[in-house]
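Feature request disguised as a bug report, sorry. It would help if multi-protein outputs had a clear separator. Right now it looks like this:
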Amino acid sequence: MILNLRVDHKIADIQSMENISKDIDELFWRLQEKYSIGEYIEISTCNRKEYYIHNDYILEDDELLSHENQSIIIEYGPSAVIHLLRMTSGLESMIVGEDQILGQVKDSKKKANKDHHCGRVLDTVFTKAIHVGQVVRNKTNINKGSVSIGSAAIDLAEKHMGNLDDKSVLVIGAGKMGKLVAKALAEKDLNAIFVANRTYYVAVELAKDLGGEAILFADLEKYLAEADLVISATSAPHTIIDKNRLLTIDRNYDGLMMVDIANPRDISDDVSEIGVKLFNIDDLREIADTNTQLRIKEFGEAENIIDDEFNLLKESFKIMEVEDTLASLRVSMEEIRQRETQKARAKLSDVDGSAKILDNLTNSIVNKIFFDISKKVKNAAKQEDKDILEAVEYIFNFD
């Protein structure tokens, strides 16, 4: 069974998501303790926290899945897989059509492979999901001219500050999200742009691309004193800016706007108490809704692609189910071939070249017989002909 545990922007605001993400982690580890889950992939972004699990022993009515936190979405089998296909296609993103989720899913799969907990089933499902995301983007306009979370943050800033020309901007965090912010800022005629990151050389590289200036994380207060706009997108597990930190800086905060697009959040809510205009991911929803309306006509075509690819995936799984039986059959046939070949060799030991002739002949016979059997078994699997599959399993059960 494939199981999906998740929380995302559709059912939770940023604060709820932070809390529910911890609940999902706890639920996963309790399932892990009970079932020794060997195959799983975790996806964690600013707008979602998900686990995909493959385990044939977890029951849908397990008491652990009757979770007290109703904000955790739990889906099984086809529903879980279709959600993944929709997600990689950009249909489940806050910013519909954004490309970042596809890269995030690839990274999650890569990490699971590296950590040795992405088995054959999830590898097949995620490979298909990544393929579907690429096909949808190639065959529809779902991502044409699409904004990202980073560019949406800039749109939000312009909505509240007006034109950003001649403004001083501080970007905190030079990871993937920080780069998206920087890409959007590069199109503006700014007075100055500063990039801070805990790893200084990463900030240097990004600042170079922008024509901005990299700063040391330790010098953050100096640049917070001068910035008109601060956009923060680090991967820190805790807040890095709060009211007390800002109060150590001599400046008027009434003109400062901060946009926090990190999850967990980088900036504490209490900065609003001293006049800072603070916004977070939840405040991007209006811009996201406008973006969705521009792409709504692409949904139908994208969903048709998803349906077609899901049916192909189901066929792949049907064939996977009989591959073990076919593998056992192939091994058994090879054992018979070698045994009978040895007998024939003993009888023809005085004939020159007989060993090679016999080996080629028996190989050819087995390959031709196995090809026909394999083809018919796979067709039966695709057509879900249980009578034939059960008969094959019974006849070729060599245990």
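(second protein starts here, but nothing in the output says so)
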Amino acid sequence: MVRAAVLPAVGAPLEITGIDLPDPGPGQVRVRLAAAGVCHSDLSLSNGTMRVPVPAVLGHEGAGTVVAVGEGVTHVAPGAEVVLNWAPSCGSCHACSLGEVWLCANALNGAADVYARRTGDGSDLHPGLNVAAFAEETVVAAGCVLPLPDGIPLTDAALLGCAVLTGYGAVHHSARVEAGETVAVYGVGGVGLAALQAARIAGAARIVAVDVSPEKEELARGAGATDYVLASDTTAREIRGLTDKQGVDVAIECVGRAATIRTAWDSTRRGGRTTVVGIGGKDQQVTFNALEIFHWGRTLAGCVYGNADPAKDLPVLAEHVRAGRLDLGALVTERIGLDGIPAAFENMLAGKGGRALVVFEGR
């Protein structure tokens, strides 16, 4: 038996309880978690914005140590430190054949599986987003584990599994920020903080952070922001005022609200690029008129998992960490136990803090 945070039903409170994991079968790996990040996507799964089979153990951003491997697993062995990959590519669908592994049609198939049972009543449990990281241990498909490169602290490495891959990828793969360009990042949570650091690494000349909370200014500037703007009805105008009335070259939206997406679009220059990372609900409708699309010549793009290939990008990110260019710890504003996840959800709803990190006992 291991302890886990179970979502019994959509909209229900999380329950910290015991679960029973099977031994890893063929093509599976059992991992003892060192840490798991609390991502806004977990909140979206719990409240029904995104669909998830329930009951489920949520958590998709994690790192830990391999306990056991099933038949046929050769790329990791017991004792290996690994990062969890919640969206493993199948390698055979149309998107994968194009090299767009972040759009793999089969990446989330495992979320519908029964991977464990609740201690006591034996009820089936599903792994939220494949990996069920809100637990002391988990059993995942072999494709969901990536060897952790040397020199990276295991607890902080959890952030590489989602926030950093997403924020870094949004800047480098989707928006393709170049040295000397101007960038605005909307939303200073875990992903936004990673995007700010990525823009700094890319050599952006001016980096504007936008958030509803004045308390996040220090966090944002520490991550690389040169300017800080409080979100309001005049945000786009303020950003144009910071850029010779032109607007930024690139806007990265990490919130997932229609109004924020629209403001990000409005704050980019003519011919600029807006990348939407935030996940919004179906009720969030963004509108444009045909004339402005023609006149402004801007590009609006969605971004899934940072348009990243985790197997290729993880070593690149690790090198940035080792060189001191990327500070994983700077994304974390609180370290909690499993029982602190509901409060972390409330803080996200209130716009407080960066990334909350669940650190498991003994780590």
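Even a blank line would do. Unrelated, but nice: The mean pLDDT is 96.
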